[in-house]
């Protein structure tokens, strides 16, 4: 059964929880790319008094800060369509990530420069394997 349009019609932004390299890359490409449609993905929402759509995580970032950003992007913000999170950061809050099963915003675990992607850890891939009886 399809979701009603009201469930997603205002969701037009990406949110990113990642390391500094990925966040800088994301900010640079979304600010400088002028192709049609990409302007809606700008990481700073103009609607909510310039509320940030990203969290830069480093070795000093506390787990509670990551959890707070994750909860904000997935539960509180109704303008976020997709949440991208580096997989090694998702591992720090794996319980929350594995429990998240909403359609919007979609949650995607992504690799980082120093941490390769491991499909065995990915919560979406775990659900896919379960559906296929693996």
Quick gist of this model?
The protein has 134 residues and is of the alpha/beta class. The protein is built from 5 helices and 6 strands; from the N terminus they run E-H-E-E-E-H-E-H-H-E-H. The chain has a single domain (8-131), classed as ATPase, V1 complex, subunit F (Rossmann fold, 3-Layer(aba) Sandwich), CATH 3.40.50.
Note down, in words, how this protein is organized:
The chain has 134 residues and is an alpha/beta fold. It has one domain (8-131): Rossmann fold (3-Layer(aba) Sandwich), CATH 3.40.50. Helices cover 34% and strands 19% of the residues. The chain has 5 helices and 6 strands. The protein has helices spanning 20-32, 63-76, 87-90, 94-99, 123-131; strands at 13-18, 44-45, 51-52, 54-56, 80-86, 106-110. It has a 4-stranded parallel β-sheet, sandwiched between helices. Strands 2-3 form a two-stranded antiparallel sheet. β2 and β3 form a beta hairpin. The model is unreliable at 32-41 (pLDDT under 50).
Helices and strands in order, then pairings?
Layout: E1 13-18, H1 20-32, E2 44-45, E3 51-52, E4 54-56, H2 63-76, E5 80-86, H3 87-90, H4 94-99, E6 106-110, H5 123-131
Parallel strand pairs: 1-4, 1-5, 5-6
Antiparallel strand pairs: 2-3
């Amino acid at each position: 059964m399809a979701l009603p349009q009201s469930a997603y019609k205002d969701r037009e932004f990406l949110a990113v929880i990642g390391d500094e390299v990925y966040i800088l890359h994301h900010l640079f490409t979304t600010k400088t790319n002028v192709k049609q449609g990409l302007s809606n993905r700008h990481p700073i929402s103009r609607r909510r008094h310039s509320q940030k759509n990203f969290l830069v995580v480093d070795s000093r970032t506390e787990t509670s800060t990551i959890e707070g950003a994750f909860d904000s992007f997935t539960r509180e913000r109704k303008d976020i369509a997709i949440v991208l999170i580096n997989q090694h950061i998702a591992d720090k809050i794996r319980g929350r990530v594995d429990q998240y099963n909403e359609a919007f915003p979609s949650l995607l675990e992504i690799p980082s420069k120093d941490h390769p992607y491991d499909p065995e850890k990915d919560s979406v891939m775990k659900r896919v394997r379960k559906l296929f009886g693996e």
